[in-house]
């Protein structure tokens, strides 16, 4: 429990420094700054693999699945890359939500900060629940495998360009529960108009981002559970990927049209992980195979997006 407490304390320190020091003054995040912070978060996450090696070699953390230090590091990096790659689809949805509610670029970082904070809590609960299910019921891994294959197929056939947050079920429920105003008052989530408290577009965008992240977690958490059922590796790789989501959003959201084939990379990753779950009791793949498939899929999607000219409509 000491290791878990220290890790959660480290995450809280990161978040406090982010909002209270580095982004104390609200400003528009430019691509250069976003690229720098993305590099910082990726470096921190990959550097944490050294901590994983030390924890598993020293016995400082519980090791219910009996991993060797080297295997623990490989599973951590593979899980982190899965979460990072699946976050790309999340970036597109966040961009659509901000555009739909006309959230100024000046306040987008603040909305994402609180969105990430909530996502950490929800994902932590979902990870503990998912690990408990796999540990207690062996057959649940087949359910997760089929679900991931279905998600890959749905992602292949769907067209996210028609997603409209203002017509979503979530937005309609918020309107029923609490008054909503179209007025944006600085970075406030609530304003008082004619004696009535009303939620601003910033709060509405925050809630929709929060709940859509829960939906994305239904894909990403089973995907990482296919790599390992070790709770600390699953939790740490997931949370460190989420912490880098804000800077990655400001970097990638402006280049989404260029990476038009990255969606196929995500389909391949989800399909591979789903098949790995279905055959997990019959075929045991070396960890480097999973890492290679995920890395090659992402690189291939990026290269294809840059190399293949877009057809003129």
UniProtKB/TrEMBL annotation:
Pfam families given in the database record: TerC (PF03741)
Membrane-traversing stretches: 6-22, 34-56, 76-99, 111-133, 139-156, 202-226, 232-252, 264-283, 289-308
Top-rank taxon: Bacteria
PANTHER family, A to Z: MEMBRANE BOUND PREDICTED REDOX MODULATOR, THYLAKOID MEMBRANE PROTEIN TERC, CHLOROPLASTIC
Native organism: Maribacter luteus
Name listed for the protein in its UniProt record: TerC/Alx family metal homeostasis membrane protein
The keyword Disulfide bond is annotated on this UniProt entry: no
GO annotations of cellular component type: membrane
